[in-house]
Amino acid sequence: MKRSIIESKILKTYQPMIDEVKYNIDLTDYDIKLHRPSVKMPAFALRFALRSFLVIILAGLGYFMFQTAPSSTNSVLAKSTDIVAFEAVSSTDLLVQTAIHQATNLASVYPQTTSSLLAFEPLSAVATELDTLNYYLNMIEQFLSTQTALDVVLQESELSQYDYKIVYQSVDLSGKPIIYNLYYNESDLGSSPTSDFVFNDEGSDHTALLLTGEITILKTKYLLEGKKIIDGNDEIYSLYSYIDTANYVYVRYETDLEDGNKKFFYTVVTDGQTINKSKIKVETENNNLVTDLEFVEGDAVGKYRFVRGELGTSAYIDVTYQILGENEENEQGSIRVDIITDEVSGNTTYAYTVRPDGEDVEHKYETERKDSFGEQDDDEQEDEQPEDHEQEPEDIEDQEDSQH
Length: 404
Prior knowledge:
Elements: H1 3-21, H2 43-68, H3 80-104, E1 109-113, H4 130-141, E2 151-156, E3 164-171, E4 177-188, E5 207-217, E6 220-231, E7 234-244, E8 247-255, E9 262-270, E10 273-285, E11 288-297, E12 303-311, E13 314-324, E14 330-341, E15 348-356, E16 363-368, H5 378-381
Antiparallel strand pairs: 1-16, 2-3, 3-4, 4-5, 5-6, 6-7, 7-8, 8-9, 9-10, 10-11, 11-12, 12-13, 13-14, 14-15, 15-16
Helix pairs in contact: 3-4
């Protein structure tokens, strides 16, 4: 039996006996002194002990901080120029697609299903808003190659009418390089915001910085008016990409009051009528850019999450979705979007494969895919010269305005 167990048993047995008699023992005639031998620790040992103690404390503190500190999911928008570039490119892209669609009045969705011979086969809820969704997919695609940060560079403008130039570079899903050049001027309005805006909105009275500029897409110039708004402790970045005051896309980067996350809020207006409203959250997860899209007004009502996927040498877009129907019926599921290239014409389309949860059938749809609105290669640009807006469009060298 171990010594510790024996000592424990003895103490347990005799402790009550000691407690009974200890108060009857008279110790007043005895000179009892408690003696504690002094132990002197060498100086080096004392220093070592103190250092070891501090190391343990700091290590524990560091572990606690790393465990509790929230990881940054917004490194993709680390700088104000990133926000400006994203606003300008995305809003103008939506504006161009809307203008083209309105001008041509072409239906862009060609629904097909794997069970197309069954006339009673119901379409997926995605089909009811695929036309609007496709605008946003065309726009979002060019950002999905981003991993940890947008490739945005602020430069001095080579154009005499503008002071600044922002260059945004990316690649689309097929690997084609994309370059956007955004040109602008900025005015510090200080504590006395001017009312001389093209667009007066709810933030005009709190505007600290005014941005005016342009971006040229498909040889057509689109104008930009951006504002950095200071409202209490909040900083809001807003931007209009417009043809005129009746045809524009308005975007604001601000906190969503529903969940406290920073998001881009879009309003698409054609001929003075609001076509749709949406909000987009951009973040990175596992070194991939993730884009959450939610429609809040218009024909589309779904929520979508876009992530770039790869299979071998091919890239595709992986989408999860949730759509609340008119009868409160909720459909959710996944979508895979691939790029299909016509071998004869070289034109590309999107192939949607929709898999609603709880269904065995796959719904397939084919939609238009625009070529990149970014710049062409240098050798393709040599024969083209920039022109003014409403006349001949300009070279595929994009110009834009925006800033914080």
